[in-house]
Amino acid sequence: MTTARDVHALVLAGGAATRFGGRKLLAPWQQGVLLDGAIDAALASPALTIVLVTGANRKEVERAAKRHGGRISAIHAADHGHGLSASLRAGIKALPASADAVFVFLGDMPRVPHSMAADLLSTIGSRPAAVPAFQGQWGHPVLLRRSLFDEVASLSGDIGARAILKALGTNLAVVDTDDPGVLLDVDEPNDLEAMRHLDP
Fold first, then answer.
1. Which tens digits make up the pLDDT trace of 128-164?
2. Which residues are within 8 A (CB) of 38 and not within 5 positions of it... i.e. 6 or more apart?
3. How far apart are CA 5 and CA 98, in angstroms?
4. What distance in Å separates the CA atoms of residue 66 and residue 88, rounded to the nearest whole number?
5. Residues 64 and 36 sit within 8 Å (Cβ to Cβ)
6. Euclidean distance between CA atoms 15 and 20, whole angstroms
7. What is the pLDDT of residue 174?
8. Where is the MobA-like NTP transferase domain (predicted)?
9. Is 181 helix (H, G, I), strand (E, B) or coil?
10. Domain total for the chain?
11. Residue 160 belongs to domain spanning
């Protein structure tokens, strides 16, 4: 398979945000809340559907997502307290059986360039995954083919798929970008304040 045609997107929004003091994805951002940035990037992607994976503050996060229209569906990771892998597992399991590949967006990354997902899809070719990189550092979103779904769904703890991607070696497609938005996430209130002062 050289071209992924049935492509979907996950927006992981299940964390408790303890370092932020809670309710991170609902913090004010531009004209809405922080989560809006990741959802907007997912909506700009070539994904056929977008699955929002909720955890902490489930109802409020779902309400925030509904403002973006009906292309987004929400599922709840009941074990979200176990960390990032719980949201990944829930999201992978929620994908349609026909899915060739999935974009993984993180809810606390509001400055992902809207063109990046399409760039990943056009670059992945027959390889199992694609990532953006800024100055040599891998970022998000990540594009994963179905061949990796089971391995990703078997992860545990507060980790993502980085070790799986690293093991691919040269079989990983890397898309270099000069936009640091592929790396910028929000862990603490100071991160959000600093991001507000960056050029749009």
1. 999 999 999 999 999 999 999 999 999 888 888 999 9
2. 11, 13, 105, 106, 107, 108, 109, 110, 112
3. 10
4. 21
5. yes
6. 11
7. 98
8. 9-168
9. helix
10. 1
11. 7-196
